[in-house]
Design goal:
The structure is a homodimer of 114-residue chains.
Chain A: H1 13-26, H2 29-38, E1 43-44, H3 45-52, H4 56-68, E2 72-77, E3 80-85, H5 88-107
Antiparallel strand pairs in A: 1-3, 2-3
Helix pairs in contact in A: 3-4
Chain A binds a DNA duplex (30 and 30 nucleotides) through helix 4.
Chain lengths: 114, 114
DNA sequence: TCTATATATAGCGATAATGACATATAGTCA
DNA sequence: TGACTATATGTCATTATCGCTATATATAGA
């Protein structure tokens, strides 16, 4: 009855849309590096800026994007704001992609042409 | 010395870029559904079109995008072309995202506002 | 209150992704 | 060869994303 008959991942359209949304948000070099940096624990905006060597408004924007998607959460302490990864499973996603990269390097599966 | 000191995921800029690229390609409802559909094995373009109820040029475009990134691979048989997932780790990525979705549903971590 | 610091938001031009459509190519069979 | 089926490609308007700059807000301390 459902549109996903035959789907082993059991993704209905709602889950699909949500998954695409999360993935799209993570699929950005700066945001990946931020998540990577936060993997070891929370960091202030200033520390993240320093680590990525990027302007503060840019970082703030990326942080807010990820926070809006529930990927990060934040905590204010004085006039600093600390961000951390809200859900470890996002880290897992990146691990998977990294593993994918390695597998592909190994077998040279990147074929741009036929 | 490297730019990723402190990074536990050990992603250098090359890997970061590649990971972002893969994720960006996967981060699309139609492409997610295609991967989902192909999870159980190869399918022809026509079968994928039927499953997604989408026009053939649209599906072909999505398939070619994913093939170019090494996510899918294809095989011609007569005048049909069969596509399959080139690397199981992409499936893992989707599993992770799905798990992420579930975790977030459970704890209601999606906070659009402060 | 004023000032300094830390962070967030708004506006904008450039660029890229999306999806629809028309058309081209490849293979099969008569 | 020609007709037919299956798939791929090109064009294009719309929309979304990107990253920069200027500015706004929030907090702390004097």
């Amino acid at each position: 009855m459902s549109e996903n008959s035959g789907s082993l991942l059991q993704l209905d359209s709602e889950h699909i849309q949500r998954a695409a949304d999360i993935l799209k948000t993570v699929a950005h070099p700066a945001r990946l590096r931020i998540i990577d940096f936060l993997e070891s624990g929370e960091q202030s905006v200033a520390q993240i800026c320093k680590y990525l060597e990027a302007p503060q408004p840019f970082i703030s924007h990326q942080l807010n994007l990820m926070k809006a998607k529930g990927i990060l959460c934040s905590r204010r302490e004085g006039n600093q704001v600390f961000y951390e990864v809200a859900n470890r499973s996002v880290i897992e996603v990146i691990y998977c992609v990294r593993r994918h990269g390695h597998n592909n390097e190994a077998c040279g599966a990147v074929s741009e042409r036929e």
